[in-house]
Inverse folding.
């Protein structure tokens, strides 16, 4: 008997794909889920990924054995170097415990479980944050609290309030930060602001936990997008990082990610790693191989890494062009200010549309974005930008 189960609501982000698929309007536009599209609106496989696929296919040493609980050690090494830098002191000192994870989402959940196990009761996240952060951490048994981050009134970071909130967080608490291209707002602290955040968190003995889901995708420059993480490491934080390779490498469905924690010394790193493995084994035993091997093939080869950075920059640049075109089209003949669309970076435009306006966009124009007004710029193309801007003007007039 299964009658005790009630119908659950559709997922606020992924559920949009289901409604979109059922919509028979030929002009329909999906700007909900954050997945990069070509200017023809089609899924995009990076040429360097195609190349890595060919290389891997030709290796007759490739097999389908299990990976270890912590994943592919070569992938983990390359992933950590990608985030912290090849010359990173903490990596050389063997102070970092790292595992391959089921992309960013899986890494976040492993971190939540690990924190709970280590006696942590709460985690702080920015307000707003990526919607899934909250249930991931709650389901791991943590209380989720928020620090102020973004002021919707003027579509800008509320930095002073953020700092004030950080100063009031009890010491040894874990605070989640978006490494770059904050989702959903597209607004990051400046370099000077990051320096201040680092200092406030050091003075308050807080533990930074970077969610790095857009490295290379934000600015088109992978080391630059890791600026905040690397600066915090320089400042001596024993921080943690979760990495996703979904967006930057376009490997969404392959579930490629990594979780790493900087510890005091090699022996502490080994203990933390053992706890990560004990957390993972009863959840899913070990991560999948294919995507991680693609990333290793690329990051393990100088030319393919250069190609990757160029191709990532191309995606970032197409999105920036779309930001300009969307803003220009929206401001044509209107008096509303849409400057924030070009000020924001990364995959999303945090449009400022109300939930009523979002529903009208969906019902009257078959344009699907999340209720908070977040528009995936990756789904905007030269073909649909005017349709989208006309519809937005219509629902906001
Ligand atoms: N963190 C943030 C901030 C994200 O935007 C996303 C993807 N939307 C993720 C984590 C996780 O994505 P994935 O599980 O595909 O890596």
């Amino acid at each position: 008997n299964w009658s005790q189960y009630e119908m659950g609501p559709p997922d606020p982000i992924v559920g949009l794909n289901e409604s979109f698929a059922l919509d028979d309007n030929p002009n329909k536009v999906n700007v909900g889920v954050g997945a990069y599209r070509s200017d023809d609106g089609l899924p995009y496989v990076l040429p360097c990924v195609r190349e890595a696929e060919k290389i891997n296919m030709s290796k007759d040493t490739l097999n389908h054995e299990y990976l270890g609980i912590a994943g592919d050690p070569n992938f983990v090494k390359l992933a950590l170097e990608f985030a912290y830098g090849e010359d990173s002191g903490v990596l050389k000192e063997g102070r970092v415990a790292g595992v391959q994870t089921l992309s960013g989402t899986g890494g976040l959940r492993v971190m939540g479980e690990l924190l709970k196990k280590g006696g942590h009761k709460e985690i702080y996240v920015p307000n707003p944050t990526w919607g899934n952060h909250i249930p991931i951490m709650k389901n791991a048994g943590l209380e989720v609290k928020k620090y102020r981050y973004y002021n919707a009134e003027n579509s800008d970071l509320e930095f002073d309030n953020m700092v004030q909130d950080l100063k009031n967080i009890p010491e040894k608490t874990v605070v989640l930060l978006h490494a770059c291209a904050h989702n959903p707002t597209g607004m990051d602290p400046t370099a000077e602001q990051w320096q201040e955040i680092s200092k406030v968190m050091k003075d308050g003995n807080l533990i930074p936990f970077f969610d790095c889901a857009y490295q290379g995708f934000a600015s088109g420059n992978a080391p630059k997008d890791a600026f905040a993480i690397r600066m915090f490491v320089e400042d001596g934080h024993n921080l943690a990082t979760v990495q996703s390779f979904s967006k930057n490498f376009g490997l969404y469905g392959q579930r490629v990610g990594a979780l790493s924690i900087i510890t005091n010394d090699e022996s502490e790193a080994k203990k933390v790693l053992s706890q990560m493995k004990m957390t993972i084994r009863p959840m899913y035993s070990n991560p999948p191989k294919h995507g991680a091997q693609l990333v290793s093939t690329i990051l393990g080869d100088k030319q393919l890494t250069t190609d990757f950075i160029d191709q990532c920059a191309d995606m970032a640049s197409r999105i920036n062009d779309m930001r300009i075109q969307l803003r220009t089209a929206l401001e044509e003949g209107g008096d509303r200010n849409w400057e924030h669309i070009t000020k924001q970076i990364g995959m999303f435009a945090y449009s400022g549309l109300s939930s009523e306006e979002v529903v009208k966009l969906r019902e009257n124009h078959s344009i699907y974005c999340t209720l908070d007004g977040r528009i995936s710029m990756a789904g905007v193309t030269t073909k649909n930008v005017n349709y989208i801007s006309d519809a937005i003007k219509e629902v906001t007039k």
Summary: Residues 15-45+314-396 form a domain with the Aspartate Aminotransferase, domain 1 fold (CATH 3.90.1150.10). Residues 19 and 153 are 30 Å apart (CA to CA). Residues 34, 103-105, 130, 178, 183, 211, 213, 244, 246, 252, 257 surround 4'-deoxy-4'-aminopyridoxal-5'-phosphate (CB under 6 Å). The longest strand covers residues 96-102.
